[in-house]
Each structure stands twice: as structure tokens, then as C-alpha cells.
Amino acid sequence: MRHKGQGRLGWLFASPYLLYAVIFFAIPLVWSIFLSFTNWNLIAPTFNFEGFSNYIKALKNAGVHAAFFVTFKFLIVFVPMVVVSSMIVAFVVHALPKFKGLFLVGFFLPYLASGVVSSLIVKGILSYNSPVNIFLRHRFGLDIDWLGTPFSALVVVSVMIAWKFTGYYALILTSGLESINQDVYEAAKIDGANAWQRFWKITLPLLYPALYTVLILAVGVTFGIFTEVYQLTGGGPNNATNTWQMEIFKQAFTNLQAGYASAIAIIASVVTFISIYIIRRLMEWWGKRNGWD
Fold first, then answer.
1. Does 237 sit behind a cis peptide bond, omega within 30 degrees of 0 on the bond before it?
2. Which of 25, 137, 250, 262 has the most CB atoms within 10 Å of its CB?
3. Residue 71, Cα to own-chain centre: how many angstroms?
4. pLDDT tens profile 85-125
């Protein structure tokens, strides 16, 4: 009886999360899968079943192709950028003699900032007549269209998102650094290991759990980029920043093709799952090579 009572208590405590998962994940997922086989236009009370035509159309669409490649471009640019920047912040904070918590809170604050507000501020800073561009034109003769060229637009969005998440990931990495026993470093010094060798042979391997978490979170963010792209570039120029979320939004709310947008969302989910799975397996392989089971 006591075991049954404990089981019921456990389900009771877990019920808020389970209810949240059912309402905001399971039901929308099932509904999206259902809609992906229809031609619903988001307004009409009726719709027709189209079979796999939405999926076939999506796989042939240039916008979907762009979303696929653009997401991996962001993966290549944003993930190393945010991992390196968060590691630098973590090492700097870890080396501080005191007030570590205060500095971590300061770096964490951008994570709490509104993406819409931050995007509007960045858009104003990078506008043609902004003080930054006026200074670059008058002082160095540089006339940079930050959001008008494919590469610079990709970099600007990546830098902005990296700025937002650096403090959050640095918090995770700092906790990992704090958990490393300093006696290991002392032993390595006695054996003649220099700072670079200690970093590669001790710090990185022992930081594996925190690095694993940060990398998976960063990859997940890459596949969910929307607000910054929507506010800054609208997916342009020439689909250079057209992410999965942007393409789904355009098809569902601009073109009013909810069924087709649902098919794109399902394809995006599959690509996201496979990508994260591959990266997770690679990280686990690296962890096992360094003694983590």
C-alpha cells in the first residue's frame, strides 16, 4: 500500500509537466501531422485530403531547400561562435577571486532580453544613417550593407544570437569548471605540462558533461531561429537567412497554406531530430575516448 501511495504521489507531482506536454506538444504534433495531409488554408471551415502531395511539393520547393542549407550555415557559424565565446566568459569568470555570481548575472542578462527589442536596436545601429555607418564611411571609406548581402546578414544574425546565449551557456560551463579538482592541474604541472597541454588534456575532457549540454542546446537553437531573422532580414537577401521557422511562417500566415506549412514543419522536425542525434552520437564518441561512459 505504501508503494502504491508513493507511486500516486509521484504521478501527482509530475502531472503539471505531463499536462503541459500533452497540451503544448502532443496535441499540436498530432494536429500538425493530420493537417500536413490536407489543403487547409487557415481560414476555410472545410478542407480536402491531399495525401503526400504537400510533402512532394515541399521537397521540390526552393524555399525549403534554402531553409535546409541556411540552417546548416547557421550551424557552422553560430555554434562554434557561441561555444568559444561562452568558454572565454566562463574561464574569465572562473579566474575571478570573488564576485563570480555578480559577473555571471551580468553576462546572463542578454538571455532575458526580448528578441524583438534587441533586433530593432541592432537594425537601428546597422541602418545606413546610423552613427556607426556614418563613422565608417567618413573615417575609413567603408560603405557596408550589413543586412543586404548574404554573408554579412548571416554573420550579423549569428553574432546577435551568440550575444544573447553566451551568458547562459557560460553559466553552465562555469559550473563545469568549478567541479574540476584542482589537484589534477597541480599534478600536471609537476609532470611538466604547459598551459596549452593542460587545457587540451585536462580541462576539455573533464568539461565534457557541460560541453555536451551546451553543444546540444546550441544546435537546438540553430533549428529554431526565427525572431531575429523575421525582424532583421525577413529571410533575405535571396533566401540567405531563410530558416525553417521563417519558411513555415511565410507559408502558413503569408500564403495561408496551413496544410503545406505543416508538411514543412514535419520535415523540419525530422531533419532536426536526425541532426541532433548525429551530433549527440559524435559527442558521446568523443566522451568515451576521454573516459566518460
1. yes
2. 262
3. 10
4. 999 999 898 888 888 888 888 888 888 888 888 988 888 88
